[in-house]
Specification:
This protein is an all-alpha fold and 200 residues long. It has one domain. 84% of the residues lie in helices and 0% in strands. It is built from nine helices and no strands. α2 runs antiparallel to α9 (177-199) and α3 (40-66) runs antiparallel to α8.
Length: 200
């Protein structure tokens, strides 16, 4: 069981670390909200969405999706379009616009956007169903459950920490230029991922 837990920890951490639209949005909420507590809707939504995807992946859905080429192609196609659009919107954001837009989001809009970048994110779908789900096939019973729980824990811990770091950076960088630079890097990564997925 310890081996499954270590495997889940390293795998989940490696998958969630890369900069992407989901991470950037959580970070931005922490950085630009007047109070850190106002970023909790995004943290909870992203964490719950990952919990849902990981649970579905580990406990059987991955085998169904991976066995159906048209479902796989449909999910990836939607993901590519989503990445291209989000990359464009993120790249065009100006410092003042980006800050105002994020600050003015209500809790409901934050939850809706966080859910969309979590559940319609090809990275999240491929990582959870394609990688975590496939990796879990080597475990059964309590080992499989332990593997899933550790992966979920990493996700919750990461998003919580990301919002806190965002809050600290937001206090230091009042101009918002760091966040815009982060968004431009993220946009390039999103476009690169879309191109990669297209050729795959």
């Amino acid at each position: 069981m310890v081996g499954a837990m270590i495997h889940g920890f390293i795998l989940a951490l490696g998958l969630i670390l890369p900069l992407g639209v989901q991470n950037v949005f959580v970070f931005n909420q922490g950085a630009t909200q007047p109070r850190w507590v106002l970023s909790l809707p995004v943290v909870l939504t992203a964490s719950l969405c990952d919990t849902f995807l990981i649970s579905m992946a580990v406990f059987g859905i991955s085998a169904v999706v991976l066995g159906s080429s048209w479902i796989k192609v449909t999910l990836i196609s939607i993901g590519i379009l989503f990445l291209l659009y989000m990359g464009y919107v993120t790249w065009k954001s100006l410092p003042e616009e980006g800050s105002r837009e994020v600050k003015n989001l209500t809790a409901g809009k934050q939850i809706a956007f966080a859910a969309s970048v979590s559940l319609v994110n090809p990275h999240a779908i491929i990582d959870t169903i394609g990688v975590i789900g496939t990796s879990s096939l080597s475990y059964t019973g309590m080992e499989k459950a332990a593997f899933a729980v550790v992966c979920i824990f990493v996700s919750w811990f990461w998003f919580l920490g990301l919002s806190i770091v965002g809050r600290l950076v937001g206090k230091v960088d009042q101009t918002g230029k760091f966040i815009v630079m982060l968004n431009k890097i993220s946009a390039i990564i999103m476009w690169g991922t879309a191109i990669y997925l297209t050729f795959q």
